[in-house]
Structure formats: C-alpha cells, structure tokens
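Late entry, written up from scratch paper. The run itself happened at the end of the previous shift, but nothing got recorded in the book at the time, so transcribing now.
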Amino acid sequence: METSPWDAFQRELTACTLCPRLVAHREEVGQRKRRAYRDWTYWARPVPGFGDPHARLVLLGLAPGAHGSNRTGRPFTGDASGAFLYPLLYQAGLSSKPQSEPHDDLRLFGTYLTAAVRCAPPENKPTREELLACSAWTRLELGLLREARVYLALGRIALEALLEHFGMKKSAHPFFHGAHYPLPDGRHLLASYHVSRQNTQTGRLSREMFLEILLRAKGLAGL
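Output as recorded:
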C-alpha cells in the first residue's frame, strides 16, 4: 500500500537526529523520568504535529516540554501548557474534548498544532542552530497544510520562525500579544503570549486573553 505524504513526513521526522544536544537531552529525560511518571515509557523522540490535515488554522508553539510532549508524543499534552490550551480550544469549538490524553479519540476541527522545534530542549531554550535545523521540518509540514489560512504563533520565537518561513523581516513585524500581520493571498499571521505555566500562572496570559485571540483567529480562518 502506498504511503501517504503525511505518513512519510511523520516517519522521517520522528527518526530525526540532526541536533546532537537535543537528541541527548530528550533521551536522557526519557530514561531518568520524573518521579510522578516513573511507570511511563517516554516518547523521547521528535514530536509530530497533531490535528486536522485540512486545517485552516495552525498554532505554532516553541518546543515539546520535557515531561509533557516529550513524554506523551503529542503537542501540548501532559503538562500545564496543555491543561490551559485544550479547554480553550474546546470552548472555542475547535476540539471534540476539553483535555488531551495519549491515544484518546480527541479530534481538532479545522485546527493543527505544532512547534518551531520538535525535540525538548534543555531549559526550554533551543539554540539558533537548532531552530534553523528544525525550520526544514516546518517548511515540509506547513507545505502539507495546503488549506491553512491563519497562523497563530505562541510566543516570540514561534513568531520569528514563521516570519522567517514567509520571508518577512523581523524588525518590521515585532512580537506583542495580539499582533496581526497580513500574509500574501489573504492569509493572516497572529501572535499570542505562549501558553506556558510561566505566563498563565503569573497572569501575563489569562484565559480571557487567549480565548479572545483564538476566536479572532477562528473567525479569520472561516471556521
């Protein structure tokens, strides 16, 4: 049976070993584990995107959390960022359930989740070289999402990754929560503070703030 472009992409991505520092870190975390997850078999590989392959709305985060996506194998799943994000996707009518668990039947409606870097970086800080290496996967992945109309960047690094992808100058498109930059062919690039614990538990990003920009993105996407 012929392999679909999506299956081929995910197979190649999850076998990636381009960045030695990230490979070492993701695997070490998967071996040492966190006490609460000592019975888990960690994913400990590059994390593929998740959602609707016909998505009109794409959310791009920074990178897998060491004990979140690096453990579960699904973006924004298994840590505080997902506990914040998925209920709001559900409230916005973009998901079938308000929580995400590995191997569940969760579906996203017209929406796709991915990240600028696919492996968990030490201290959540990928290097410039690692971002550049993973930009090749971004190019391939976004190329498969042919129906995307709106891109919502979660955080400055995600915005800059998308600006580079679209050949746009960073200096002319600064990051701030609520930023909205038109793209060619009537598409849109929006930015939000990242849904990290650091932002959500300090009040920098509230549920109301994120739901507002999510609904704006949904409307622009025609969902």
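The two ends are 33 Å apart (CA to CA).
(Scratch paper discarded after transcription.)
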